[in-house]
Amino acid sequence: MRLLNTRTLAFEQFFGHRPPYAILSHTWEGEEVSHQDVRDRIPSLESRQGYRKIQQWCRIAAEQRFEWAWVDTCCIDKTNNAELTESINSMFRWYQQAAACFVYLSDLPVDGELKTNLPNCRWFRRGWTLQELLAPSKVQFYDQAWNLRGTKDGFIFRLESITGIPANVLTGHASIRQISIADRMSWAANRETTRSEDVAYCLLGIFDVNMPMIYGEGENAFRRLQEEIIRKSNDMTIFAW
């Protein structure tokens, strides 16, 4: 696992035991930076919106005494297919093992009333949001100016209403494995992904399955996901879904 030093913004690779780390959950937007951009410190790096987002997040993480951090934009070398496959298959576990998850709601106004604005944030429509909300025990929500607006525990019933995921599952008091496959599938209904394959790939951790990434396979990815679920589980509700 490749982590980012929150003070120097330099990478370090960890194998086996990893130090405590913070993790960022966010919506991909314009000017995101890649692993190579940050590693090579390209000339335009400081002016890129995606890098400024990482700088702000690392500053807050460092203030909370986190030395290490992980973010999907630049901590994965996406030119390396083996690393990309391993990362996507490990994503749920990495969020689960994070000491804290920071959610950046870039479209939540500073003066926005949470009850009205929270359900409309793009972050909640993303396919990847499910595992990023379910896996970590500690989740903090920040608005577009990086003001802390609340935590998963504090928003638990609001989050239940927005996502359809029971509060006791969100808090970890009930195991996600106790929920039927059909119900878990229903959580993902109408969620958005940039790539059609990610409709399946973002659910790997939710169903505790692994499979190779084949970008370009389109809707066949979801068929492979169903086959892997059937192979591993005797829960017949998948056919009802």
Automatic annotation (TrEMBL):
Limits of the DUF8212 domain: 220-241
Source taxon at top rank: Eukaryota
Stretches assigned to the Heterokaryon incompatibility domain: 21-107
Pfam family, one: DUF8212
Name by which UniProt lists this protein: Heterokaryon incompatibility protein-domain-containing protein
Organism phylogeny: Eukaryota, Fungi, Dikarya, Ascomycota, Pezizomycotina
